[in-house]
Amino acid sequence: MAWQENGAEFYEMIPHIPSALERQIGIWVLTSGRNRAKSTYRVGPRHFTYYSLHLILSGELQLSFREDKVVLKRGDLFCMHPDETYEYEINPSGTELQMAWIAFHGPLAAAQLQHTQLSAVHPYMHNGVTRELIAILDTIRELLAQQLDQPLLLAGRLMEFLHLLVVSSSSNDSSSSHSLPTWLERGKSYMDVHFAEGITVEQVSDWLGISRSHFSKAFSKHMNTNPSNYLQRLRMREARRQLLESTYSITEIALSLGYSDLFAFTRAFTLFYGTAPKHYRDKHCDLELNDQVML
């Protein structure tokens, strides 16, 4: 497929329509491509409804996600997760920014990514790009360009790509002291996803297949807070968001966050924010109303 050009880049993108068989398998490719960025290259802020994994082949890029920013270089990679907002732009380095990427989706993809460092809260990996990853990605792009009806072969190549990503993640994890161990990242990701289901630290450690004390000790060492406090913070942040941005009753919010009743939620919220949830909502609604009047 010929290269195309827009104001920010030269690019090659090959789309794919997943077959019914690919969806039954549980993983499917949506598109794959590569680019050469111009000096004005910038994407976002935008969110995705699928996974989009980028390999940096040369140059540098600044990635912004949630409240964090990170500079990524040749050999690094990042994966954008569904329903998360990202922004990225070229970071001038004197070398042309070039990337290759693949977009994919499916429950099997989500399950496979849990075995890597690439979570929604930590969507990048330093030194994760290998020759094998690039070769498999080139093969997938060739299969897409041929437009042949080979769903099993395409799904197999994608699974092979994700398997190599897990291997790269494990190798990268053992050689880097700046990132969380893979198993600990999985536990953290589990809490990030399931905190509203009333999970306990013991349930998380059981899911990981390790003791509660070992998990708590390692988590506290790497995160500077224990897992109980981390779970509480996740719940309180979501409670605050729902109080300010939704019309749900406080009881509905309490039960949706895994609390057994309104009293337990009110007690936890008051201890965390220093005021009861009803007073917190009323106060901020009054402030917003006053701001509107002043405008």
UniProtKB/TrEMBL annotation:
Coiled coil: none annotated. Pfam families: AraC_binding, HTH_18. InterPro entries: AraC-bd, Homeodomain-like_sf, HTH-like, HTH_AraC, HTH_AraC-typ_CS, Tscrpt_reg_AraC-type_HTH. The keyword Phosphoprotein does not apply. Keywords: DNA-binding, Transcription, Transcription regulation. SUPFAM superfamilies: Homeodomain-like, Regulatory protein AraC. Residues 185-283 form the HTH araC/xylS-type domain. This is Helix-turn-helix domain-containing protein.
